Amino acid sequence: MKKGSAVHKILEDQVHTTVAVDITSNEDAWGLRIWNVIQGLRTLRDTGMTRELEIWGIVDGLVVNGVIDELSYICPDRELEEADEAGKVPKMVPLPEDQATITDFLGMATLENDGAGALMSTRSLLNETNKIYICDVKTRGVRSIPKGASFRPTLMQLMIYHGLLSDLATNKVNADVLFDRYNINPSNPFSDGFIAQIGSLNDPYDPSTPELSTQESMTTLLSHNSPRALWSLMISEFALTLPLGTKSLGSVLKAEYRDQTTGDITGVRTFLYDENLISGYVEDEMRWWKGEREAQGVTVAEAYKCGVCEFAEECWWRKEKVEEQRVKMRESRRARSLV
């Protein structure tokens, strides 16, 4: 995980400049998180790409939080998108592993050359599309790409991100539920020190006018001097970034795999957002989370997970499946003997 975090940090630094900010209260901490999202959305609109964008949402009454690795105006698979718009492809169809991806054409093979190249490419596409696409970056110690059951967590993760981002863009997230969950008083003003620190930072999306950017940052914070007010500003930024709401989000989702040591891209998987699939998945998982159904064991395709599970020896599901297999073997031997 440390190696993976290092790769993510390098990618983030290609788009954002990290600055330490001292905080003295929960409200300041949340103000910083919301401010980072505002700056991320502005960076996306200005350069065509942003990374490490935090999002929140309410799923079945419970707070869900995540960080989207990358948002950009580059469609990761035009063919798949066009086929989907023409109704010629079913949902959730991952690309064949040997199919060329957008990264092949942009030459984004390593961490050293993919940052500037991506930004230049997205700038050229700003006038060609109004859709924004979600990408998740996974780092691995092996060069193979997950398949089948191993790929399912990433598939579901990206679909959930799509839904959360859509809800924020259409102002469907009840901020009071989040503030209550994190013990935040949404009406409390930010500390003077926090406003001074943030106000002294130049907005990264307008480096040509640093003095104006600093003044605007201070003015913006003073006129939105509470978590609730700054949240409202963030929602307006989402509306500017995704003016058509859900329709501003591309249906093609991308999982990008990188070597955890070198950062080289080792493969890409793209697939379509499927509302019915993710809705059914979330509904079933939430029933377990809320204690409304019993836990279910893994499928045969995922039985390899038992090898690293600390509860394997005492797992009732595993013992039950082993016994079922024994019964089948006995019945099979009995049937052969009768013949």
- Domain module tally: 2
Number of strands: 5
Number of helices: 12
Summarize the helix and strand pattern as letters: HHEEHHHEHHHHHEEHH
Give the fraction of residues assigned to helices.
Answer: 40-55%
Structural class: alpha+beta
Strand content: 5-15%
The profile of the biggest β sheet is:
5 strands, mixed
Note poorly predicted spans.
93-127, 207-212
How large, in whole angstroms, is the Cα Rg?
Answer: 23 Å
Gross morphology is elongated
Mean of all residue-level pLDDT scores:
81
Instruction: Give the end-to-end Cα distance, rounded to a whole number of Å.
Output: 56 Å
Family: Belongs to the EXO5 family.
Keywords: 4Fe-4S, Exonuclease, Hydrolase, Iron, Iron-sulfur, Metal-binding, Nuclease
Cofactor: [4Fe-4S] cluster
Protein name: Exonuclease V
Task: Provide a quick synopsis of the model.
The chain is an alpha+beta fold. It has helices at 2-13, 26-47, 78-85, 102-106, 111-125, 148-169, 175-181, 192-199, 210-223, 227-241, 275-289, 316-338; strands at residues 49-59, 62-72, 133-140, 252-259, 265-272. It contains twelve helices and five strands.
Describe the model.
The chain is elongated. Strands 1-2-3-4-5 form a 5-stranded mixed β-sheet, with helices on both faces. The chain is built from 12 helices and 5 strands. The chain is of the alpha+beta class. The termini are far apart. The chain has 2 domains: 287 residues, no CATH class; 42 residues, no CATH class.
